[in-house]
Protein 1
Amino acid sequence: MNKFQGTGVALVTPFNTDGSVDYNGLKNLINHLIDGGIDYLVSLGTTGETATMTKDEKKKVWAYTAEINDNRLPLVAGIGGNNTLAVAEDIKAFDTTGYSAILSVSPYYNKPTQEGIYQHYKYLAEISPLDLILYNVPGRTMSNMSPETTCRLAYDFKNIIATKEASGSFDQFNQIIRDKPEDFLLISGDDPITLPMIALGASGIISVVGNALPKQFSDMIRQCLTGDFKAATPAHLSLVEFTRLAFAEGNPAGIKAALKHLGVCGDTVRLPLVKASDALTNAIVKEIEKISTVA
């Protein structure tokens, strides 16, 4: 089985109440996820609030994550941005110890053409010491990486091994599955639609919800990957409301509220994000208790 099949989790970055990085909370989170049976970790994706972190903080978090993981699971680093040359310099400066791949979000805000997106990833692929996973999330970047561009990159660069697709477009998923190289992976970037994506041929998920409920989520994904959708469907449906609540006031405020309730880490986020409201937190807690009773 490919190391990036199954359930990957985009780690939140725990913060202390003074806003500093909570390394004890990060250790708890990593062990919580590994004990929960997930398949790989993604350090400092956008769920990790990377937009609010300094380069020095990122360097320390990456190193600490690799140290605590201790090669127990494959590890991916999130390194992206909308300045190609700056992203390339960050990749060149990255200490790859303990890491297997880099997840790099498609350039945001600039709204590049498809050729611009292709040339951005071409530049990164030619300098990257690790395999690359593309990341298409139009709702945040305000531009969509087309299936044609995704597959063009997949065929042209052997070190571009997968795409995390969060477009929500099944027409797009269909085209990628139909046209991609056989060994190129389509990874879900949306928790709620992972089951039907796997039914189409996706290899799994890079999840947010899995931060809080790693066992429930990864068990469901494993059932999907073995083709047992009849067994997976009740678990999938039991997570629908929790997933809705987790994103109701933005990511990662909701999932951090869940993690605080579970005793894994605190719920502090950095501005401009704010903590989940009391009403949402109470609803999340009730849903976790409901899921735990069913499980």
Protein 2
Amino acid sequence: MEKRTKGVAVLARGVATCSTQAAVYGQCVSSSYKDIQKDMCLKEFQAFKECVQHAIKRKW
């Protein structure tokens, strides 16, 4: 498997592992998408990001 393809696969598994955090972040964004503001969902995004990073670290 090409290195780039492997990286995408690892990222995809990391995102799939964090579906709960992704859903919370998505709900935050969609709740006010007509009036979105910078850092509006920062707490939710950070939780999702940290989860994905943790999941990816276990795969590499």
Protein 3
Amino acid sequence: MILDTSYTNKANNELINDLVGRPYSIFEKLKLRGVGSKRMIIERVSPNFKPFLNSNSNINYANLELRPKGLLIRFNKGLQTFTWIIPFYHLALFKINGSSIHAQGKFIHFKNNITFKENKNFFKKLIDRKLQFDKQYNFNL
């Protein structure tokens, strides 16, 4: 689900909190050594993402925020800010020439450069949180 979060909206905040949980407290953020990524360059997106990104030659950036039950991906188009809300049960990560996040029939592929490498610890934290979330459910495959 993609929301326009340029301005604070109580309904949007409640929806985000219901889907991926409330933001971590300051104590939890310190304990986890941060819950946000540095901005990363978006290399490719799925066709249904194109209307939300800058169409000219500008570079598109995104930031990731970890939540207790999911992930928020924030990106800008001009002065508008959009947030892609991904609960852990929808999330799929792939590491091929950078990193690719897939969910809900959409994907974002991040460029493999210095900023991506600086976020290595964030992706490790993200994978650990997703595995902890999946352990709650007994999947007998």
Protein 4
Amino acid sequence: MRVWLITTVLLKPLHFVQNRIDAWVMARVRRQSGPITVARGRVYILPTRFGYAFALMLLAMLLGAMNYSNSMAFLLTFLLAGLGLVCMHHTHANLVNIQLRAGSCAPVFAGDIAHFEVRIDNPSAHPRYALALSWPKAEKQAITADVPARGSITLVLSLPTQHRGWLPAGVFSVSTEYPLGLFHAWTWAELDMRCLVFPRPAPGGIVPPATVGTNGLASGERSGQDEFAGLRSYRRGDAPRSIHWKSFPKLTHPVVKQFAETLEQELWLDWVALPWLDTEARLSQLTRWVLDAEAAQRSYGLRLPGRVIAPGRGDAHRIECLRALALYEDAQP
């Protein structure tokens, strides 16, 4: 208990100073489209807890060497101190001149995890080791990787989502404690990245009412091979393979097999079909209907106040409808 109290009292001023430094620096970080080159003046460095312990150990060794006038103790103390200074130089240089580029971010539904891709390029001829990406105050969840010489890697930052619409990535840090963990060097960056968050789909159970669209199927007489519809008299131009040869000996004239193609009627998903729900609940239910219609391979359209999306289907059509639902308020006056 005493050790914990002493440690807390000693480290609290250090945490306070670091928090003030972080706040001062982050207030000056500007959102950029990239690439962002980490200049030498943008890299900040402080000792880690192991670095402070290492410095206290060197101080104790120095006092012991002075007390006993031991030259070997002086030599070891200064050797370790020089090692610490070299370590500080390598830790700082491990971040200098790397480049940060914005990657892609696939759309997600509200409540899911958004994944922002960040590409790190190393233009130098020396590898960069143990580079870590993390959100502010989330260093324990940092993603660490090495970047080869004149190479690049892509790391993914995860961020929980709560609301639909555009979710900006925000400020993140790139840090390193290479090579010995005595110093923590970091820089702040904010790339022009954002993730489109779709409304959370409502639970299943409510189906589009008949007034919203036609849910049945119709049969047409377009050329097709879906469903046998009967026989008809032969007409000039009919393909020989369509003749019903089995009935030819029994009839005085040839007949042709006729097929009816099953035609799916369009389904309209309409905002006004859900008058008892509030805005967010309507958007969630419309999202559910879009997903269900796409899973059933139905042709569907979407009607929203101020916007109508013509019927269709497929991934591009689904994304267009979900995007309209996600940005619904943005289209309102």
